[in-house]
Design brief:
366 residues; 7-stranded parallel beta sheet
């Protein structure tokens, strides 16, 4: 079976494709489409796949004109891990990944016109695909209801985490990273963007309350660009004495991220809408106790290994985080549970699930 895989996306989609591609290539003939420089960074030793250069930006006309169909025409299947599919007639079945339909759910700050365009692209991809893969049962139900897709056309394959990469590192290594980032223990940690559904504003409000009401000595590490947070008018202003305890890391390497996960007293993830929620899983793989919102797909990911709160309630965030700060026994129990839960999300099992879908689609088309 010959499979073509579009590998141009970044962030969570990038994490998926760079982890499943080597495993798929070990069993089937694979062609990966994208920036070959990135491939050399992802797989420094190479993988048994054919690299097809394709650097057109996503969501534009250029990707439609330059999509290298002539170089994959003999493939049995094309997998596009997003909804930016080729509009041209394809000579092979198409598998599409739709991670979530946040553009249609009203959680992203987009205008009416952009939302209508997004709905068209989602609907077109869902209709043209022979099969749809999504990353949680929550997203599956969203796709079925919002795009009017029959349930049998959608399969859930959870994201994975590489526990050989994401694992608890030594206190010495963590301290070196903390020193470089102007942090010190104890600290709380969050990661996220300025998009409203990430709910960073309420976490900052909760941190203010934790400082003023409970006098916690902790700093708050925010993995994300400081400038982006500052221009978001929904975020609270911070008094100088609290602002000095909030550290915006900017972009950091995976090694630094793993060190921060390993040393944080509590990892907080307050998102209101998530197709999956990879950061808490990565934090759990590093043994971090996690406090997460009881919303969207997050209970699917975290299971019984975290402490939950209502993401719309600053008071619940305060209480959840403070209970972990003050209860060492619960922190240690959740840390052990985190490690066990993360081991359930290995990439090898995920790759086999992708291969099974590919084979089913090709067999039906054959």
């Amino acid at each position: 079976m010959k499979i073509a895989l579009d590998c141009r996306m970044k962030h969570g989609v990038e994490t998926v494709v760079k982890n499943i591609a080597p495993l798929i290539a070990a069993e089937e003939e694979l062609r990966v489409l994208g920036d070959t420089r990135r491939f050399n960074e992802w797989w420094s030793g190479g993988i048994p796949a054919k690299y097809i250069p394709f650097d057109a930006p996503i969501y534009g006309l250029r990707e439609q004109f330059e999509f290298p169909l002539d170089k994959i025409r003999d493939c049995d299947l094309l997998h596009v891990p997003h909804f930016n599919i080729p509009v041209r007639r394809l000579p092979m079945p198409l598998v599409v990944t739709i991670n979530d339909v946040g553009h249609l759910a009203g959680v992203l700050p987009i205008g009416w016109g952009y939302k209508q365009a997004a709905k068209f692209y989602y609907s077109y991809a869902a209709k043209k695909a022979s099969h749809i893969i999504t990353i949680s049962e929550f997203s599956k139900q969203e796709i079925i209801s919002r795009l009017n897709v029959p349930p049998e056309k959608v399969t859930v394959i959870h994201c994975g985490v590489d526990t050989k990469m994401f694992h608890r590192v030594s206190e010495e290594k963590t301290n070196r990273v903390l020193s470089r980032l102007h942090l010190q223990s104890p600290y709380l940690m969050i990661s996220g963007s300025v998009r409203p559904h990430k709910n960073i504003g309420r976490v900052l409000q909760a941190f203010i309350e934790l400082k003023k009401r409970h006098r916690i000595p902790h700093k708050l590490a925010i993995v994300g660009e400081r400038e982006g947070f500052r221009i978001n008018s929904e975020l609270p202003s911070l008094d100088d004495d609290i602002a000095e305890d909030v550290v915006f890391t900017g972009f950091i390497s995976d090694d630094d991220l793993i060190a921060l996960y390993s040393g944080c007293e509590v990892f907080i993830f307050a998102s209101i809408y998530e197709g999956f929620g990879l950061p808490p899983l990565e934090a759990m793989a590093c043994g971090a106790p996690v406090a997460v919102s009881h919303a969207a797909s997050l209970p699917e990911v975290v299971g019984d290994a975290g402490l939950y709160f209502d993401p719309f309630s600053v008071e619940e965030i305060v209480n959840a985080v403070n209970s972990l700060i003050t209860d060492q026994t619960t922190r240690e129990r959740l840390s052990v549970a985190s490690l066990a839960r993360a081991r359930e999300f290995g990439w090898a099992a995920r790759a086999e699930e992708y291969l099974e879908i590919y084979r089913q689609v090709v067999n039906r088309a054959g």
